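Researcher: I'd like a structural prediction for the single chain below. Treat it as a standalone chain; there are no partners to consider.
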Amino acid sequence: MRFNWILNDTADDKLHKLCVDIEYKLRPKIVKFLILNFDFIDCCTDFSCFHFNVDLCTNTVTVDEQTPSFYREAITLRFEQEIKIHLP
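Model: Treating it as a single chain, here is the predicted structure.
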């Protein structure tokens, strides 16, 4: 699983720590979501084929186009409704 971070112009140590905190909270949610939505017999069981955009400017998490289209099309709508960024 890979996160593409979309940040504003002022990337500093505080923002870096925030990104780490957000990723720490997002990963378990996303893994749970993926397990519930896929049968991983014929899938990338290590989640390495999934890519996500984490946009701190709009506070959104979206499925990136690098995710294979089969998976992307299957989850995009539900994913964007269920997975949210909760800023501290």
